[in-house]
Amino acid sequence: MAGKRRLGLAVTGGAGAVVMFAAGCSGDTSGAGLASDETKTTVTITPANGTTQVKPDGTIEVKVVDGTLQKVTVQGDGAEITGKLSADRTVWRSDRTMKPDTRYTVTAVAGNDGKSQTATSSFATLDAAQTLEIVDVTPNVEGEEVGVGAPIIVRFNRPVGNRAAVEKVLEVTPQKPVEGAWRWIDDKQVIYRTKTYWEPHQKIKFDADLAGVNVGGGVYGEADKEATITVGAEQITKGDISEHHMTVYRDGKKLRTIPFSAGNGTTREYTTTSGVHLLMGKQNPVTMISPGRKPGDPGYYKTVVNYGVRFSNSGEFTHSMPSTVGVQGSANVSHGCLNLSPANAKWYYDIMQRGDVLKLTGSDRQIEWNNGWGYWQMSFNEWKEGSALK
């Protein structure tokens, strides 16, 4: 059969694999005589066609004997399954987990001596009794620009058993690289903070290849998650509580110096905190209620104010307070907030970005690292200790 070749294809449903082979013969046309040899190309795909209850954290593997893999694709809803090909192109293995309760089809194209053949395998992953989902990524407002100190806060729907496995698939990719780390605040929340502030005017990509991650106890990641975060201008406010003024800078340029009246300091709760704060959000109007007091108690108050910008979870805001304009810039008479004039309060309210930096000095009370977004109160080395990846 000199000069001719026959190719055949067979698919078998053996346990754990799909097999494809091509067979043929060739002749020696040199005139020295007739000779022949046989080649056999075999492709094995695991899991096998028709397999069910495949573990989502299992591996898809494609192997070829007497040939090379030209292309391997995996189709299925949800997670995009990627893989790596060996240097000699004889083995392909998936490099990520699969979505639970999902049907996948693997298509492999193998070649030998200029000929190619295709093998496929269709299988289904198990339907996990419990799944782990990301229910929120903050910042999360469409079109929002955040400040250079902004954290990335990820919240889950249930306690995370295997924190290291989950943290491994959380990826933060800024356009302008900077070192950062995750810290677990509790078993449902992890926060990313950088070593130094983000560079302004850039986008940050957050990706979580969570689908199929084995969290332990029969719990698997339900779905991938992604988000894009936009960092706006570098807005940093520096204020001295004892001097009753703060100065706002944007991208290194001074915008405005604002007089204020801070906490009167008669009690700890009425003392404005010093330290590195982040602006957390704004409300207009906002109702201020005395902490730890109820109607009828000495010192109880309930006041509605305008243009509130929060900078801690212990009730600290910048806000408008017309009644204290006369002492703003010279005395501290508030219950812990920074009282501003109506015009200055509105201006600050209008320009603020969540994650803007507010550095305050001049009081004997330091903001706690876990009071609101006081994360910059902790050194970066301390912050990294909260990571599950050592």
Short description:
Helices cover 5% and strands 42% of the residues.
Descriptive key words:
390 residues, mainly beta, Immunoglobulin-like, L,D-transpeptidase catalytic domain-like, 5-stranded antiparallel β-sheet, 5-stranded mixed β-sheet, 3 helices, 30 strands, elongated
Explained architecture:
The chain has 390 residues and is mainly beta. It folds into 3 domains: 18-124, Immunoglobulin-like (Sandwich), CATH 2.60.40; 130-232, Immunoglobulin-like, CATH 2.60.40; 235-377, L,D-transpeptidase catalytic domain-like (Beta Barrel), CATH 2.40.440. 5% of the residues lie in helices and 42% in strands. The chain is built from 3 helices and 30 strands. The protein has helices at residues 163-168, 342-351, 380-384; strands at residues 18-27, 36-46, 61-65, 68-75, 83-85, 91-94, 103-112, 115-124, 130-132, 134-138, 145-146, 152-156, 170-174, 180-186, 189-194, 202-208, 214-216, 219-221, 225-231, 235-240, 245-250, 253-259, 275-278, 281-283, 286-289, 302-305, 308-310, 317-320, 338-340, 357-361. The strands form 8 sheets. A 5-stranded antiparallel beta sheet has the order 1-2-3-6-5, with no helix packed on it. A 5-stranded mixed beta sheet has the order 22-21-20-30-23, with no helix packed on it. It has a 4-stranded antiparallel beta sheet with strand order 10-12-15-14. The chain is elongated, with a radius of gyration of 31 Å. The N and C termini lie far apart (64 Å). The model is unreliable at 1-38 (pLDDT under 50).
